[in-house]
Amino acid sequence: MLKETIKNIKTDFFALRNGAIADRLRSAGSPYKIIFGLMVPQIEQIAARQKPSVELAETLWANDSTRESRLMATMVCPREAFTREMAEKWVAEVDTEELADMLCFRLLRYMDGAEQWAGELYAGESRMNRYVALRLLMNLAVIGKLTDLDLAGRLAKEEDEADSRAMKLLRRQLADEVDWMKEEA
Questions:
Q1: Do residues 97 and 173 both lie within one domain?
Q2: How far apart are CA 139 and CA 127, in angstroms?
Q3: Per residue, what are the HEC states of 89-140?
Q4: Residue 142 pLDDT exceeds 90
Q5: End-to-end CA distance of the chain
Q6: Helix (H), strand (E) at residue 14
Q7: Whole-model pTM?
Q8: Residue 119 belongs to what domain range?
Q9: Which residues face 66 on adjacent strands?
Q10: Which of 5, 8, 100, 115 has its CA 20 to 30 A from that of 75?
Q11: 63 plus 96 within the same structural domain
Q12: pLDDT digits (tens, 9 = 90+) for 84-105
């Protein structure tokens, strides 16, 4: 059953492929061997036809050579079944900012203790963990679950010469959001 589901998903990916987008992603440095060039709404449409399942999500996540599989994994994983153990494993395996964004938006922001965990992630050595932490804090702010504005503001205003363009933009957005939230309080 799972093999048939994966086969159907891959068929849908292939039918919707967009070579121009795939080429742009490759030239921008995307690490994936296989890129179909689907946009997120197209992946969401395919995901909506699947029954949410940890087994399906983990199978798609394990397909780390294919961009669309990894993104779709975050869409088919039931939030209530997404454990801290899964979260730690997936965050450790995140390989692009796009995937980090999707993971935070779809799953991490709904976890118990997400804000505290973001602080722990930020304290680690990994640049991607710091990106995930800031993105998670931003997602929590958007849904009204950010409570430690001082921590979020401090992390957002730290500067690192190694920050990517996306990280700098995220820092600025989070700092602006925290400043606005403080004014409204």
A1: yes
A2: 18
A3: HHHHHCCCHHHHHHHHHHCHHHCCCHHHHHHHHHCCCCHHHHHHHHHHHHHH
A4: yes
A5: 52
A6: helix 2-16
A7: 0.94
A8: 83-185
A9: 34
A10: 115
A11: no
A12: 999 999 999 999 999 999 999 9
